[in-house]
Amino acid sequence: MKRKWKERLKEVEERSSQYKRSPLCPQYRPQLSKPWQPSSVWKIFHRQASAFNYVKTCKEDVHVFALEKNTKDG
């Protein structure tokens, strides 16, 4: 049993050193097709005016897409 523990400890230490050499990226940030464009932020707004008001509060440049449904006419 002591031997298995030592082998397991060695595997963990090797994996730890591998992650230190090549760390995982800290956060996934999807990019648009061109890297010089702003990063993607997805929010849903029920009114176009709400979407544009949100844009005014952003410090970075953003792209806006709004889709309003007119439920009164069907």
From TrEMBL:
<keyword id="KW-0548">Nucleotidyltransferase</keyword>
<dbReference type="GO" id="GO:0005634">
    <property type="term" value="C:nucleus"/>
</dbReference>
<dbReference type="GO" id="GO:0003887">
    <property type="term" value="F:DNA-directed DNA polymerase activity"/>
</dbReference>
<dbReference type="GO" id="GO:0003682">
    <property type="term" value="F:chromatin binding"/>
</dbReference>
<dbReference type="InterPro" id="IPR044917">
    <property type="entry name" value="PRIMPOL"/>
</dbReference>
<keyword id="KW-0239">DNA-directed DNA polymerase</keyword>
<keyword id="KW-0808">Transferase</keyword>
<dbReference type="GO" id="GO:0009411">
    <property type="term" value="P:response to UV"/>
</dbReference>
<protein>
    <recommendedName>
        <fullName>DNA-directed primase/polymerase protein</fullName>
        <ecNumber>2.7.7.102</ecNumber>
        <ecNumber>2.7.7.7</ecNumber>
    </recommendedName>
</protein>
<keyword id="KW-0240">DNA-directed RNA polymerase</keyword>
<dbReference type="GO" id="GO:0000428">
    <property type="term" value="C:DNA-directed RNA polymerase complex"/>
</dbReference>
<keyword id="KW-0804">Transcription</keyword>
<comment type="similarity">
    <text>Belongs to the eukaryotic-type primase small subunit family.</text>
</comment>
<dbReference type="GO" id="GO:0042276">
    <property type="term" value="P:error-prone translesion synthesis"/>
</dbReference>
<dbReference type="GO" id="GO:0006264">
    <property type="term" value="P:mitochondrial DNA replication"/>
</dbReference>
<dbReference type="GO" id="GO:0031297">
    <property type="term" value="P:replication fork processing"/>
</dbReference>
<dbReference type="GO" id="GO:0005759">
    <property type="term" value="C:mitochondrial matrix"/>
</dbReference>
